[in-house]
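Subject: Protein record for review, amino acid sequence with backbone structure tokens
Category: Structural biology, sequence-to-fold work with a learned token vocabulary.
Format: Residues in single-letter code; tokens as whole numbers, each standing for a residue.
Body of memo: The sequence and its backbone structure tokens, given next.
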Amino acid sequence: MRKTKVPKQGQKFICRRTFKHFKENDFIAEVSNIDWSEVTQEQDPNKAVVVFNNLITKVIDKHAPMRKQAVRNVSAPWLDKDLKQYMKHRDKVRTEAIKTNNLAKWNEYRKLRNFVTKLNKNKKRLYYHKKINEVKSDSTKVWSTLNELMGKKTRFAPTFLEGDGIYLTKPREIANYLSQSFTNKIKKFRNDMEVRPEENISYQLIRKYIMQTKNCTFKFAEVTEDDVKKLLKESKEKPSGTDNIEVRLLKMVVDLILLPVSHIINLSLRKHIFPSPWKMAKLIPLIKNNKEPLSGQNSRPISLLPALSKIMEKVAYDQIQDYFTAHGLNTIYQHAYKMGHSTTTALTQITDHWLQEIDNKKIVGTIFLDLSAAFDLLDHAILLNKLKCYGFQLPALKWLESYLSNREYKVYFNGNYSDVGYMDCGVPQGSCLGPLLFSIFTNDLPLVLKHATMAIYADDTTLFASAQTDCQLNNILNEELALVTQWIRANKLVVNVEKTKCMVVGSKHLLKTTQMLYLTSGNTRIEQVDLAKLLGVIVDSRLSWTSQINYVLQKMGRSMGIIKYCRKCIPRWLTKQLVQSLVLSYLDYASVVWSNTSENNLHKLQVAQNKAARIVLGCPYRTNVRTMHDSLAWLTVKCRLKYFLITFIRNIIMTKIPKVIHNKLSFFSDNHSYGTRQTSVTRCALPCCKTNQMQRTVCYRAMVAWNALPGFLLSENSKRCFQKKLKVFLFTQE
């Protein structure tokens, strides 16, 4: 039998700018001498960007040139000359002890070994203490140092690829293979689609249910230099795109480049042309499963766009978002990309609806829809037609068509680029405008439903309905699923039926007598489950949240193990910050939704929090829990959960968003035309409950906690002051 040998991995390379001899003042001085008249006099947005890039890149290359560097495994940086000498001496004595088997030599070796181990630990601790103290004012550098300490340094893709039984080792060949793989995936979905009717059902829904009573139109407005300056300063310092112009360098000279950048942005809006150089994306493949070799299936692309293209996008994003918000065009069921909305509000809408229906002695059925490559499959023509229905005028439509069309990308692998690839559908990955356009694209989806409700977060779509019997529920869900599937097909998206799941939610008694659902999409039956991961939270059919608590405990335990390992090398203030970021964040995420779990589960979380406190303080097991919490200014788990519940309801009361949740709240002032003592502050009127299921809803529990607050807290207008006073108040309640 012939043996196939896996090729040896070659050297890994990265191309980046070197700042070894960079002097900020010299760089700023040279940029200040650039004559931008060639840019500001140009009336073609494409040429204007090319000229700008050439002028600024020439200066950047001089002060921070690009270098192709080999990636090496960095040895322990705290190993100095003295420590290495001790290590050599230790190893020499060990060799002699092995040869002679002399007891005195073995004792000498053990003493040296213990001494070197202790010295190594001390030098490592002092090295990281010093390094962290030097960068403690810069949180990004602090986390970079911590990742280095915890062994979480950036992973690079392997230097070979395994695909279709062929091993590729040349970086450019691998880059081209991955580029073709990404393209073929989308082409396959598009080719499998059926021919659609010209008139999309979405256009009718938008005209009839959203725009019928509206009289509004949209067009882009030009921006000022102050607007551009604000956007540049707020830009995140992410890796550069194919133009190799870094955000941090632009921020250094922000006042000097405002004139040409503002000219390009306004010229783009006037000419309805999105500059072509800003359409090129740099795709970096990341391996999905580290236990499997790199292949087309086992990789996902991270997209990097030119820094200034994101400024242009943010200008468009803000104006489009303001238009939809001002005229009330957004569906209340989409929880992504909107102020005051989050995964927590989406989960609240879903679980509160379930519990409310269970309180009415009904069975709830849920379908967790999975859309395949939804952002990459978005059809440009359909999107533009929808925007036209929403009142977008021709100039705005032309600019958006220019933004979406003729986009290109190159896969970057181990210092090499692939050939240029082309996108004829989808929104650009890594963009800020793309997700907003996708949410507009799906804005009319909830309107197709007749007897069910929907909650959407980006492309995560959850469909749910209720009925008195399992037979009725089965019929309703099948009918509603057929309507949703029809909408998805008409809009040229694809449902991944294998990953789509359904679940029946109800009380213990109802679930015992409920039969399995029989839901189908096409000719495929949808799998029914008792557990499902929804927006990062594990949901079970009885809403006991036990699986979610176990998941949280597992995550907290893993993070605490890592921090315990690092604790001796970092100061206590940073240990506390680490625990709050990497441990307690799991406890806090969507806690308002699952905080109605059992006392036993809450006790488990309290034990985990106590363990985290001991790690921060370095105190023994028998240390008094209250003493630890007072020292760290931590609330107990129950009070911590109540804190987030109260701040959650206050945000909704004060902002009146999300509407889908605010509409469920009722206040005493709404129910009486006459004055009462309780109308001096905003207190909530509790709904009637048939069972304790209604009392488990987020809204009910939050209203009870809100009503129990003293008047001085309810009347506090400042959000920050309210949070401080609430924390002090809850401390006194423990």
Q: What stands out?
A: Residues 520 and 526 are 6 Å apart (CA to CA).
